[in-house]
Amino acid sequence: MTTFHTATLGCKINQYETRSIAEAWAGRDAVEVDDPRAADLILVNSCAVTANAVADLRQAVRRFHRDNPEAGIIVTGCAAQVMPDELAALPGVVRVVGQADKAQLLDGPEGNVTAPDKPRFAPFSISGYGRARAVVKVQDGCSHFCTYCIVPLTRGRSVSRDMAEVEAEVARLLGAGFREFILSGINLRHFGRDLAGKPDFWDLVARLEKSFALDWAGRARLRISSVEPGQLTDKALDVLGASRLVCPQLHLSLQSGDPEVLKAMGRGHYSPQSAVEFMERLKAFWPVMGLGADLITGFPGETEAQFERTLELCRALPLTYGHVFPYSERPGTRAADLPGAVDVPVRKERAARLRKLVARKKSAFLKRLLDLPRLDVLVQDERGRGVSQYYAACRFEDAPGCAPRSLVRAHPVRVDKGVVVVEPLEGGE
C-alpha cells in the first residue's frame, strides 16, 4: 500500500487543489501520512509568484529528499509550469506536472489525461478539508495580464466553475460539519464571463445566499477571499448589504495608491479612491468590518511622491491588516523589462514604512473590538485558537470544549500580542 504526504506552497487555490488530489489518491487505496519521513511519495504543490516562493520550493524539495531519500517527490503547480527542467533536476524528484496538467494527478500519481479529455473547468472538488475553514474554488486562471504577474503564464486564461457545482460543494461541506467557507479564485473579477448568461461574482454570492441563508444564517458563514476595487459596484453594495452569510470583511487586491503606478502595472481600470468611497458607503451595513489589502512597493518607476500616495490611501482606508510585498522581478513578465528599476533597499524600506502604518491601524482595530459585546469565533484547533467574523485572530481564555469548526459566540476580553483573547458566552454555539 502506497503512503503519501502533501505539502502546499502559495495560495488558497493551491491548498484546495492539494486537498482534492489527496482525496483522489486516498480513494485509490493510498494512505496519507502527516510525517513526510514515512511517505513513499511526497507531493509538493508549488507557487511561482515571487522569487522567494521559488526559493522556498527548492529548499522544501531538498529538505524532503534529505529526510527521506527513498521517497519519490512529485512537483506540481505554478513553478512546475514555468521551470519544469530545473525542478526535474532536483534530488528525489521523479515527476514534474505543470499547472496545465495538474488534473492528471486526480487519476493517481501516474495519471495521464489526454488533451481531448480535458474539461473546461478542471474537475477538482472536495468532500472534506484538513483545516477548520474550507476553501471553495469558484474560478481559476486570469485573462488580465498585469505587467508584474506571472500567473496568466502559469494558470492560463480565466475559467469559471458552474454555480450549481459551487452550490453542491457548499452543501456537501456543510453536511461534513464545516461552518466557514472561503470563496476563492485567482481573479474573481473574471468570474462568470465564460458561463451561460454571463453572471458575475456577486450573482454567485446572491445565489448562495438564497440557497443557504434561511437554514444557516448565524450558524455558518461565507468569506470572500480577494476582490479588486473595480468590483466594488452598486451591485456589490446591494448584495453585501443584504447578506446574512457573508462575513463583514473584505480583502482588496489594491497594489498601489497611485494611478500612474497602477497604469504601469496594467491595472488602470480602477481608481484607488473608489475603494475609499465604497468603504464609506459599506459602513451603513457593516459599521464594524475587517479590511485587508495586497500592496506592492518599489514597482519600476515608482517615485517617492507616488509611494506617498499609497501611504495616503492606506491612511484613508479602514485597513485592519495588510500583505505588503517589495516588488520582485519575474522573468517572462513585461514589468521585468520596464525602465526605472527601484533599488532593492529602497523597495524594502518603503515596504517597512507601509507595514508600520498597517500595523498601527491593526492595533487600533483590535482594541476597538474590545468594545463589542460579542464576537463570532470559528474554532480552528483544540487549543482554543480561532478567527472572528472580522478576520481577527482569537484565542479562548480557557479552551471552550468546542471541537474545531465550531462557530462560538464569545466576549472579547483583551488583546495579547495581536490576538484577541475571548471567553465563550453562555449558550454560545
Automatic annotation (TrEMBL):
Residues 2-111 form the MTTase N-terminal domain. This is tRNA (N(6)-L-threonylcarbamoyladenosine(37)-C(2))-methylthiotransferase MtaB. InterPro entries: Elp3/MiaA/NifB-like_rSAM, Methylthiotransferase, Methylthiotransferase_CS, Methylthiotransferase_N, Methylthiotransferase_N_sf, MiaB-like_bact, Ribosomal_uS12_MeSTrfase_RimO, rSAM. Pfam families: Radical_SAM (PF04055), UPF0004 (PF00919). It comes from the Bacteria. It comes from Pseudodesulfovibrio karagichevae. Gene3D superfamilies: Methylthiotransferase, N-terminal domain, tm_1862 like domain. Residues 128-367 form the Radical SAM core domain. PROSITE patterns: MTTASE_N, MTTASE_RADICAL, RADICAL_SAM. The keyword tRNA processing does not apply. Keywords: 4Fe-4S, Cytoplasm, Iron, Iron-sulfur, Metal-binding, S-adenosyl-L-methionine, Transferase. Signal peptide: none annotated. Its cofactor is [4Fe-4S] cluster. NCBIfam families: MiaB-like-C, MiaB/RimO family radical SAM methylthiotransferase.
